[in-house]
Amino acid sequence: LCPKLIMNNNQPPLAIIGGSGLDVFDGLENPIEKPPINTPFGQPSAGLVYGKLSGSDVVFLARHGKDHQYAPHRVNYRANIHALASLGVRKVIAVAAVGGITEVMENRVLVVPDQLIDYTSGRLSSFSDRPDTVVQHVDFSYPFTRELSQRILDAASRQNIVVQDGGIYGVTEGPRLETAAEISRMEKDGCDLVGMTLMPEAVLAREAGLDYAALALVVNRAAGKSQELITMDMIKSNLQEGMSQVRSILCGVMAMSVRVCD
Ligand code: HPA
Hints:
Oligomer: single chain
Shape: globular
Distance between the termini: 17 Å
Number of strands: 11
Order of helices and strands: EEEEHEEEHEEHEHEH
Number of helices: 5
Largest sheet: 11 strands, mixed
Bound molecules: hypoxanthine
């Protein structure tokens, strides 16, 4: 562990991986951006930003890069998770913008997913893919850490922000959006949400032994689920409105973490 990262209360900091709409965490106190570090898997998407939220230490990483330069299928997920783990992070909250499939998943609904289905193809999704590494068949029955998910839900309810507890997140390859038929198939599979980023991030976190939970914001109805075309303008306006609630919830999580972090 990197001693510099064991800060307040002798606890390793929690990490937030910000997605679309959260490439920079406005409101982070005393942010210090480190230059991107090298990992055995290459460079993470951006330099890690150390700072404080509600008085607790936090590390922020922009999943798509500071300037949103990495599309979901080009993100170096392995370098991102490796960088966080090697610096002593033990818990990761991932923020993700998603399309809503089932009826309740309307624009700007917030969700803490409890399951996922991986429809991606060809992404590098394991740390053990070299002849000199031991193959890991990690248990991934429950991809999200319940205690960490509960902390997000508790922080939201303390602020009277409504967040859906649970939902199945289907991960597509992108960067194109889906066809209506693909979404219809995903709905039959049980997916409530569609996004492009939580895999392989979640399984790499599991391989690295990190707790991992996600907070998803619906920014559009998925393909074929509304009469409107899905436009970037629509997505951006929902992102802007929803991300302020995401930020408040994360501040709440950090305010609680002083007391409940193990
Ligand atoms: N599909 C996949 N990923 C997404 C979507 C979508 O409709 N909206 C935001 N991320």
